[in-house]
C-alpha cells in the first residue's frame, strides 16, 4: 500500500537530523479538517520558469515583491514564508507519522532517500509558486531556476546576494565564501581549490554520471520504493544523493551550529535560494524523463502513483495531491526555459 497522507493533528516535534536534537520550534502547519482534492486543469496553459541568471530587473523586482509579501504574512498563515519553510521540516524531520496498523506504534514519514523525492518537492514548489503568484495578483508567475548544471549559471544567481536591492531574496546564513565561487557539484565538506573552469569541467562529468551513466534504471534515478510500513530511507537516486545534496552542503553556513540554512533539512526552506535550487532539481527530473525514449519514464506501481501529500494552497485551502498527478510538469502548467540555456553535460562522458 502507499504511504498515507500525513495527519496534521498528530504532527509532533521535529528532529534536527544532523545532531539528533529536537528542532526548537514547531514545524507543524495549522490544523484544518476540510481537505479538498487536487484536480488537474482540463486544458493546461503552460508558462515558463526562467533561468535565474537570465531574468531582467523587472522580473526580479516582482519576485522580490512577492517574497516580501509572503514574509510579511503572519506566521499563523499557512501561506507565510515561515510556514512554507516549515513544510520541508514537517515532511523531512520526523514531525509527521502515520499509524502502523499494529498496536499504537506510529511510523515516520520521510520523503528523502526514496522514490518520493522528486514528486514531493515538485508539489511543494508548485504550491509555493502559486502562493507567490497570488500575492502579486499574477497566476502566471513562475519561479526562477538556478541553472547550476551549466557554466553560464553555476554561480549563485546575483539576485539572491543583493541585500540592499532585493532584501526578500537575501539570507545571511549561507557559506559566504562559496557565494563568490561557482557551485561545486562534488562538494561534501571540503573545498576543491580548483579554478572556476576546472570546477565547471568536474561538474559536467558529475552531471553526466548521475543523469546518464548511472541513471539507466528508474530506481537508480528516482530512488528506491517506499511503501506503507517500510523502514524509511530505502535509498536515494543518483541525482538526489549527488549534486542535489552537494549544493545543500555547499550552501550551508559553516558559522551555524548545524549547517543552517541550506545544509540541514529542517532549515533549508528558510533560504529563498532553496527554491531556485530545487526548481533546477525539478528540471533535472523533466530532462531525464524526456531523454527516456522507449524506456519507462515513471513507476507504474500504484503504491507510487497513489502516494498522497497535503499542502496549503494560495487560498489557504488544505489540498490533497497524488504523486501520479505530478509526473508531467506540463499538466501542472509550467515548463522550464530552454531558450539560451545549454545542457553541456550530455557530452561529458568521463
Ligand atoms: Cu528536501 Cu533538497 O531537500
UniProtKB/TrEMBL annotation:
> Which residues does the annotation say bind Cu cation B?
244, 248, 278
**Which UniProt keyword terms apply here?**
Copper, Disulfide bond, Metal-binding, Oxidoreductase, Thioether bond
Disulfide connectivity for this sequence is 11-28, 27-89
Instruction: Locate the cross-link: 2'-(S-cysteinyl)-histidine (Cys-His).
Output: 92-112
Q: Which cofactor does it need?
A: Cu(2+)
**GO biological process per UniProt:** pigment biosynthetic process
Protein residues bound to Cu cation A? 88, 112, 121
The GO terms this record gives for MF are: catechol oxidase activity; metal ion binding
Q: Does the keyword Oxidoreductase apply?
A: yes
Segments forming domain Tyrosinase copper-binding: 112-129, 271-282
Q: How is the cofactor bound?
A: Binds 2 copper ions per subunit.
As for family, the record states:
Belongs to the tyrosinase family.
What's this protein's name?
Polyphenol oxidase II, chloroplastic
Amino acid at each position: 500500500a502507499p504511504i498515507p497522507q500525513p495527519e496534521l493533528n498528530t504532527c509532533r516535534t521535529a528532529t534536527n537530523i544532523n545532531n539528533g536534537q529536537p528542532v526548537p520550534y514547531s514545524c507543524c502547519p495549522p490544523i484544518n479538517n476540510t481537505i479538498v482534492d487536487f484536480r488537474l486543469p482540463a486544458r493546461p496553459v503552460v508558462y515558463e520558469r526562467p533561468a535565474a541568471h537570465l531574468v531582467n530587473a523587472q522580473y526580479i523586482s516582482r519576485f522580490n515583491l512577492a517574497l516580501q509579501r509572503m514574509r510579511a504574512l503572519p506566521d499563523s498563515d499557512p501561506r507565510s514564508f515561515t510556514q512554507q519553510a516549515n513544510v520541508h521540516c514537517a515532511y523531512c524531520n520526523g514531525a509527521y507519522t502515520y499509524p502502523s496498523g499494529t498496536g499504537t506504534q506510529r511510523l515516520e514519514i520521510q520523503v528523502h532517500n526514496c522514490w518520493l523525492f522528486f514528486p514531493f518537492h515538485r508539489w511543494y514548489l508548485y504550491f509555493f509558486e502559486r502562493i507567490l503568484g497570488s500575492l502579486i495578483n499574477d497566476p502566471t508567475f513562475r519561479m526562477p531556476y538556478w541553472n547550476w548544471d551549466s557554466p553560464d549559471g553555476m554561480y549563485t544567481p546575483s539576485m539572491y546576494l543583493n541585500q540592499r536591492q532585493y532584501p526578500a531574496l537575501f539570507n545571511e546564513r549561507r557559506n559566504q565564501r562559496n557565494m563568490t565561487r561557482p557551485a561545486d557539484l562534488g562538494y561534501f565538506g571540503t573545498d576543491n581549490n580548483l579554478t572556476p573552469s576546472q570546477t565547471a569541467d568536474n561538474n559536467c562529468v558529475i552531471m553526466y554520471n548521475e543523469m546518464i551513466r548511472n541513471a539507466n534504471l528508474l530506481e537508480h534515478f528516482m530512488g528506491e520504493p517506499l511503501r506503507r510500513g517500510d523502514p524509511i530511507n530505502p535509498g536515494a537516486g543518483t541525482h538526489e544523493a549527488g549534486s542535489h545534496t552537494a549544493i545543500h552542503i555547499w550552501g550551508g553556513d559553516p558559522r551555524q551550529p548545524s549547517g543552517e540554512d541550506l545544509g540541514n533539512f529542517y532549515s533549508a526552506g528558510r533560504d529563498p535560494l532553496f527554491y531556485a535550487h530545487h526548481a533546477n532539481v525539478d528540471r533535472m527530473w523533466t530532462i531525464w524523463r524526456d531523454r527516456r525514449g522507449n524506456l519507462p519514464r515513471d513507476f507504474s506501481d500504484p503504491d507510487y502513483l497513489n502516494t498522497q501529500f497535503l499542502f496549503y494552497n494560495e487560498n489557504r485551502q488544505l489540498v490533497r495531491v497524488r504523486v501520479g498527478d505530478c509526473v508531467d510538469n506540463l499538466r501542472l502548467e509550467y515548463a522550464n526555459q530552454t531558450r539560451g540555456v545549454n545542457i553541456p553535460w550530455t557530452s561529458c562522458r568521463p
